[in-house]
Write a structure and sequence with these properties.
Layout lengths: L7 H4 L2 H9 L2 E6 L3 H11 L5 E7 L2 H11 L3 E5 L7 H14 L7 E6 L4 H7 L4 E4 L4 H16 L2 H16 L15 E6 L2 E6 L3 E7 L2 E6 L2 E5 L3 H8 L4 E5 L2 E4 L3 E6 L5 E5 L4 E4 L10
Parallel strand pairs: 1-2, 1-3, 3-4, 4-5
Antiparallel strand pairs: 6-7, 8-9, 8-12, 9-10, 11-12, 13-14, 14-15
InterPro entries: CheY-like_superfamily, LytR-like, LytTR_DNA-bd_dom, Sig_transdc_resp-reg_receiver
GO molecular function: DNA binding; phosphorelay response regulator activity
Keywords: Phosphoprotein
Length: about 280
């Protein structure tokens, strides 16, 4: 939390704010699913005074576009590979802290899970919209953003974003918000969202640009880099045993040496995975 008072007039220049309040609402749509972006663009096209200026298919792309296009509003998907919606907002908050005279965009989260609603408001989003997107609910969220921009609430929203940046900064006194995804991984299967409990995962294997998660007798495809998954799973007792495999150490039954000098990791279910020499120290002896 910010302990010292913040100069609102310094954070949001009056002239710039006035100019933006009377122009059309310029929206950047951010979602890793092309069909979802297309639907949002189509729905927004029917809303008077709203212009979709661009689309971004990832959090990183959104961060590249924001300083170049200066959108008024982000429609931001929560669940995206590598950098999710909350991560994007945290980066924007950090930028706002470093450059307080540059007004950041307002944010409306778009999510398939209402459990994110509370957290959306904790991180100072203007609103949130559940998938599948209801046109009336989307219009309500856009109008709320428009009203925020039109009134003094815009300055307050920017101040609260700066407060978020302060709370996320190293050494901040405020404890981080609880992450509802801390022990789960979200995967998309046939158009539906599925939560996979991390303790249920036996192992993960790389398949090109995808990772296949083996958990509780089921397999799930996830478009994610192994390095990212390794970092995500390591605190939960997982280890990389090969450039193409990550295992749950609780599932390791034995490690069998081979004549070549390599080893084979045998899981409790009988699955055998190669243990490369370069990863040998990852498995406790």
């Amino acid at each position: 939390m910010i302990s010292a008072p913040v100069d609102v007039t310094a954070s949001v220049p009056a002239a710039a704010t006035a100019a933006r309040t009377h122009a059309a609402l310029r929206v950047l749509v951010v979602d890793d699913e092309r069909l979802a972006r297309q639907r949002l663009r189509r729905l927004l096209g029917a809303v008077p005074g709203v212009t979709v200026i661009a689309e971004a298919s990832s959090g990183g792309e959104a961060l590249d576009l924001v300083p170049r296009l200066a959108p008024d509003l982000l429609l931001l998907d929560v669940q995206m590979p590598e950098l999710d919606g909350f991560g994007v907002l945290a980066r924007l908050a950090d930028v706002a802290r470093q450059a307080p005279n540059v007004a950041p965009p307002l944010v409306v989260f778009v999510t398939a899970f209402d459990e994110y609603a509370v957290r959306a408001f904790e991180v100072h989003a203007v609103d949130y919209v559940l998938k599948p997107v209801d046109p009336a609910r989307l219009v309500a969220a856009v109008e709320r953003a428009r009203e925020t921009r039109r009134t003094a609430a815009l300055a307050d929203a920017h101040v609260r974003l700066l407060a978020l940046a302060t709370s996320l900064a190293p050494g901040a006194d405020a404890p981080p918000a609880a992450d509802p995804m801390a022990d789960r991984i979200y995967v998309k299967d046939r158009g539906k969202g599925i939560f996979v409990r991390i303790p249920d995962i036996d192992y993960v294997e790389a398949l090109g640009n995808y990772a296949r998660i083996h958990a509780a007798g089921s397999r799930h495809m996830l478009r994610e880099k192994m390095a990212v998954l390794e970092q995500r799973l390591a605190p939960h007792g997982f280890a990389r045993v090969h450039r193409s495999a990550i295992v749950n150490l609780d599932r390791v039954r034995e490690v069998v040496p081979r004549r070549t000098g390599d080893h084979v990791v045998v899981l409790t279910g009988g699955v055998r995975l190669k243990l490369s020499r370069s990863y040998r120290d990852r498995i406790p002896k």
